[in-house]
Structure formats: structure tokens, C-alpha cells
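Input C-alpha cells:
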């Protein structure tokens, strides 16, 4: 079974990430996605005008490939750049701030 990312959740799709930039995105609850090797927006025919549906499996693991569906009917895979289990925990809580607030409240 898969979950679709609800509207309003943000994601960034890039060719690569500097560690600090990726970590900042994760901390803000933004999903860092990376093209597979040899892919980029041009090779996939992306214009930036498409609407994306990101299919997130329930059994998330660091650096797993996920499927992205476009409103044009096209699909492709990307790497979900959560590199550690801690980053996955932050994601599941909507970012590091929400995680810390929940932790303090419990």
C-alpha cells in the first residue's frame, strides 16, 4: 500500500544537493528528491508547469527510489534524499520544529 503526499506538502527535485542545503530542506519538512543518474528535467521533458503526485511507500527507508506521477500521465522515479532514519523521523513529524515540539509535549 502507498500513500500519496497531500496537497500543500512541498518537495524539491534537483540533480544533486550540498549536504547543508538538503539538511535544511529536511528540517523544514520539505521532501528533497534527486533525479536518478543520467536524468534531468530536460531528459525527462519537464517544463516546470506540471503537477506532481509523489507516491510515498509506508515502509520508507533512507535513499529509496520513489515514483512520481505527472498530471500529463508521465511517470518517472527519483531518489528520496532522506539519508538517515533521523531525517525520516523529522519528515514523519513535518520537520524538526514539529518533532521537537511533540517531543517536549510528551
Amino acid at each position: 500500500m502507498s500513500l500519496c503526499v497531500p496537497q500543500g506538502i512541498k518537495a524539491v527535485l534537483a540533480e544533486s544537493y550540498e549536504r547543508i542545503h538538503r539538511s535544511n530542506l529536511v528540517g523544514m519538512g520539505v521532501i528533497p528528491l534527486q533525479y536518478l543518474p543520467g536524468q534531468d528535467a530536460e531528459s525527462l521533458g519537464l517544463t516546470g508547469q506540471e503537477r506532481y503526485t509523489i507516491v510515498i511507500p509506508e515502509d520508507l527507508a533512507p535513499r529509496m527510489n520513489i515514483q512520481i506521477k505527472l498530471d500529463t500521465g508521465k511517470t518517472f522515479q527519483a531518489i528520496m534524499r532522506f539519508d538517515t532514519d533521523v531525517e525520516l523521523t523529522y519528515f514523519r513529524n513535518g520537520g524538526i520544529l514539529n518533532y521537537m515540539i511533540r517531543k517536549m509535549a510528551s
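Confidence is low (pLDDT under 50) at residues 1-6. Strands lie at 2-4, 11-14, 31-35, 52-57, 65-70, 75-80.
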